[in-house]
């Protein structure tokens, strides 16, 4: 999917209003069209069908529609209030960065859409009810009133299901699982398993040009196709030094341009086209997203673990559970091709180099803060070392053995300086020693 389209889809997905707004528009249209259908088919319906429809007069129809509209707008206000309270709770208990997960919840979107569309439909149908006068026999849209009644019943069921859903969503295990699922999808999308990781990225020449950012914000995604096209058109090589998730600042360089042919000079016009093309292919936002930012999910999970390990919360069990999800994601990274990505032209010449986090970056991101805040707790310390052990086991070719060993040595220093009982220290240091000296696993 194109980076611009993917960014728009993600922006819409993480907003509360698109689905409810679409439902209200549909309800307004249906509330206008259905009474017109009532006037056409009302007298032609078979008795078995008409017996199921609303059979009251204009006053009864108005009373029903007014009751439905009034109750649904009250329930909608209650639902909004509960959603806001949930967002506040998630922000304070877990991390402000997990709010995107709650706001993107489709169940909440659909529930709000059901309540608001029922309210809009009832109000719209109410306009078509006419009382009997001397020249007008009156009109009651029986099908429309019946549908409004069914929407009210569905809203009652929806409220019960919404409350049940809300109690499940605010659990730490649910939050962690949803973040882990999103992160896994981002990893699979940006680190395909069949990617050629052996391709070496060329080194920038001494006369390379720096490309300054035209905007300020978080780098959310890069249009790889657009970058490749502009690089080929100008016979240049470009490297985006910033990774998705990094903060760009207007006027500060974030990319580098050079040529492979020392005899080819990039002129002022060509340089301007490259500057414009690169800035147009880079998308920023006010917050990080999961479109191409593979480290964002790790950041969210680590934030939850760090909050759980804070003295004010003191919940090491949640931190241990977080490390289980992080371990699963890191083991998946081992099977993929993390790190810098190279895009080539039709002749196989590298034209675009994209900076992406490697295994060492992700290991440090995932373990640095939990190691800092949690090594004093034996259960957390043992789980952190188990993460390295599990990643080492999945690294059957030994490709990342040096990175795992470096993290194990940091763990060892933290254990030695920590306030552990002698028995606990001996057990933890034994794990550190095994990770530091073990030969990497070999495929059979």
Short description:
The protein is 61% helix and 8% strand. By secondary structure, it is α+β, with helices and mostly antiparallel strands. The chain folds into three domains: 3-170, no CATH class; 175-358, Alpha-Beta Complex (Aldehyde Oxidoreductase, domain 3); 375-444.
Characterization of the model:
By secondary structure, this protein is of the alpha+beta class. The chain folds into three domains: 3-170, no CATH class; 175-358, Pyrimidine nucleoside phosphorylase-like, C-terminal domain (Aldehyde Oxidoreductase, domain 3, Alpha-Beta Complex), CATH 3.90.1170.30; 375-444. It is 61% helix and 8% strand. It is built from 16 helices and eight strands. It has helices spanning 3-13, 18-41, 47-50, 58-93, 99-103, 106-126, 142-169, 172-190, 224-233, 268-280, 294-308, 316-335, 359-374, 378-394, 401-417, 422-437, and strands at 209-212, 217-222, 237-240, 247-248, 253-258, 282-285, 341-344, 350-354. A hairpin with a 5-residue loop joins β7 and β8 (350-354). The chain is flat, with a radius of gyration of 30 Å. The two termini are 38 Å apart. Keywords: Membrane, Transmembrane, Transmembrane helix. The chain crosses the membrane at residues 16-37, 63-87, 107-126, 146-166.
């Amino acid at each position: 999917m194109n980076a611009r389209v993917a960014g728009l889809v993600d922006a819409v997905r993480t907003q509360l209003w698109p689905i409810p707004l679409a439902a209200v528009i549909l309800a307004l249209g249906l509330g206008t069209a259905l009474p017109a259908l009532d006037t056409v088919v009302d007298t032609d319906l078979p008795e078995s069908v008409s017996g199921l429809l609303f059979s009251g007069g204009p006053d009864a129809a108005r009373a029903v529609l007014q009751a439905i509209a009034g109750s649904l707008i009250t329930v909608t206000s209650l639902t909004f209030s509960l959603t806001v309270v949930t967002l506040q709770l998630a922000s304070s208990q877990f991390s402000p960065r997990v709010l995107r997960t709650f706001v993107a919840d489709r169940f909440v979107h659909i529930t709000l859409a059901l309540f608001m569309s029922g309210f809009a439909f009832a109000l719209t149908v109410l306009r078509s009810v006419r009382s009997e006068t001397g020249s007008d026999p009156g009109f009651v849209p029986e099908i429309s009133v019946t549908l409004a009644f069914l929407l009210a019943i569905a809203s009652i069921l929806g409220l019960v299901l919404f409350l049940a859903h809300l109690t499940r969503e605010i659990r730490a295990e649910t939050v962690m699982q949803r973040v882990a699922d999103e992160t896994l999808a981002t990893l699979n999308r940006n680190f395909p398993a069949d990617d050629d990781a052996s391709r070496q990225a060329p080194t920038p020449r001494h006369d390379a040009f720096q490309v300054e950012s035209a905007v300020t914000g978080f780098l959310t995604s890069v249009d790889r196709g657009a970058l490749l096209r502009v690089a080929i058109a100008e016979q240049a090589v470009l490297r985006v030094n910033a990774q998705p998730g990094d903060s760009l600042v207007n006027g500060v360089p974030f990319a580098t341009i050079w040529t492979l042919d020392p005899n080819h000079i990039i002129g002022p016009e060509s340089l301007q086209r490259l500057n414009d093309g690169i800035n147009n292919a880079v998308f920023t936002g006010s917050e990080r997203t999961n479109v191409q930012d593979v480290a964002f999910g790790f950041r969210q999970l680590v934030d939850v673990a760090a909050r759980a390990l804070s003295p004010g919360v003191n919940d090491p069990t949640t931190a241990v559970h977080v490390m289980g999800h992080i371990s699963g994601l890191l083991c998946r990274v081992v099977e993929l091709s993390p790190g810098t990505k190279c895009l080539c032209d039709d002749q196989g010449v590298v034209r675009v180099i994209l900076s992406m986090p490697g295994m060492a970056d992700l290991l440090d991101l995932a373990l640095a803060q939990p190691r800092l805040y949690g090594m004093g707790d034996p259960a957390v310390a043992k789980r952190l070392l188990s993460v390295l052990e599990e990643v080492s086991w999945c690294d059957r070719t030994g490709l990342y053995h040096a990175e795992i060993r470096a993290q194990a040595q940091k763990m060892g220093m933290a254990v030695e300086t920590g306030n552990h009982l002698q028995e606990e220290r001996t057990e933890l240091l034994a794990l550190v020693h095994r990770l530091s000296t073990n030969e990497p696993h070999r495929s059979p």
